[in-house]
């Protein structure tokens, strides 16, 4: 079911996330502080939206500094891995990368893979992001365990997810928007009401912010914290591997 949904919405997935989160997912990259030479893994990021923004941030860092041989070496070592279980999502991302001129130097790597069984080595990544993906996995605990495994000591885990609104009146308004407006927009824009309905319902099944934070800590992460945006419409959870 989940695979079919993401195959159906692949072309309009980033637009859908904008509809559901008012574009707040772009804040994730600003919290990551990307740097030249980093090895970063973006999971469930097939359309490339997060990866492109990481590269844009790295390019801005390079432009502010003085170029030298050391910096050129760091630039050559930069690798942003985009891992997604759905090949259709990856194909959308690859096409967008070509259109934007990203990855021509080999810094952008596309990987078809399962977040619960990553193919990357232990202690190999400086950062790990997953945006609007973890609520759709089968076993959240396995995804968190794998994230902890592949991160280097000092590496940061960042998860952006549509979450639970706590303010009663705002919750009623957001529920109406989620269950009535978003599926209608999905049908209008993408011709697919059912897939958008499923994605909205998946938000309600996801753990609360506090419960998810405790799951991240149970996976071995330290300094776990979260920030609610727009009253909990979106939450950013973070943790460090010490």
Describe this structure in words.
- It is a single chain.
- The chain is of the alpha/beta class and 242 residues long.
- The protein has 10 helices and 7 strands.
- It has helices at residues 2-9, 13-21, 27-32, 49-64, 69-77, 87-100, 140-150, 168-190, 193-205, 209-218, and strands spanning 39-43, 79-84, 108-112, 125-131, 151-162, 222-229, 234-240.
- The chain has a 7-stranded mixed β-sheet with strand order 3-2-1-4-5-7-6, sandwiched between helices.
- Helix 1 packs across helix 9 and helix 8 (168-190) packs antiparallel against helix 9 (193-205).
- The longest helix is centred in the last third of the chain and has 23 residues, at 168-190.
- It is globular, with a radius of gyration of 18 Å.
Give the helix/strand layout.
Layout: H1 2-9, H2 13-21, H3 27-32, E1 39-43, H4 49-64, H5 69-77, E2 79-84, H6 87-100, E3 108-112, E4 125-131, H7 140-150, E5 151-162, H8 168-190, H9 193-205, H10 209-218, E6 222-229, E7 234-240
Parallel strand pairs: 1-2, 1-4, 2-3, 4-5
Antiparallel strand pairs: 5-7, 6-7
Query: Main beta sheet, described?
Result: 7 strands, mixed
Q: What is the element string, with H for helices and E for strands? A: HHHEHHEHEEHEHHHEE
Global geometry: globular
Distance between the termini: 37 Å
Low-confidence stretches: none
Number of helices: 10
What's the number of extended β-strand segments?
7
Average of the residue pLDDT scores: 85
Give the helix proportion (percent range).
Answer: 40-55%
Strand sequence of the main sheet, in spatial order? 3-2-1-4-5-7-6
Name the structural class. Answer: alpha/beta
């Amino acid at each position: 079911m989940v695979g079919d949904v993401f195959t159906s919405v692949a072309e309009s997935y980033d637009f859908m996330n904008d509809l559901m989160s008012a574009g707040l997912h772009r804040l994730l990259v600003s919290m990551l502080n990307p740097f030249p030479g980093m090895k970063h893994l973006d999971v469930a990021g097939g359309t490339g939206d997060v990866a492109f923004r990481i590269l844009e941030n790295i390019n801005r860092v390079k432009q502010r500094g003085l170029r030298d041989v050391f910096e050129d070496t760091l630039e050559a070592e930069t690798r942003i891995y985009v891992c997604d279980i759905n090949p259709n999502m990856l194909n959308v991302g690859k096409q967008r990368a070509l259109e934007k001129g990203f990855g021509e130097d080999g810094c952008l790597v596309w990987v078809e893979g399962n977040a619960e069984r990553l193919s990357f080595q232990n202690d190999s990544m400086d950062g790990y992001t997953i945006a609007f993906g973890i609520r759709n996995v089968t076993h959240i605990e396995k995804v968190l365990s794998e994230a902890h495994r592949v991160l280097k000591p000092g590496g940061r885990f960042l998860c952006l997810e549509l979450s639970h609104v706590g303010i009663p009146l705002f919750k009623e308004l957001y529920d109406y928007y989620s269950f009535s407006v978003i599926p209608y927009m999905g049908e209008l824009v993408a011709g697919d009401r059912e897939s958008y309905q499923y994605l909205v319902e998946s938000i309600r099944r996801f753990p609360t912010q506090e419960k998810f934070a405790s799951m991240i800590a149970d996976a071995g992460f330290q300094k776990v914290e979260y920030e609610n945006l727009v009253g909990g419409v979106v939450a950013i959870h973070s943790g460090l591997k010490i």
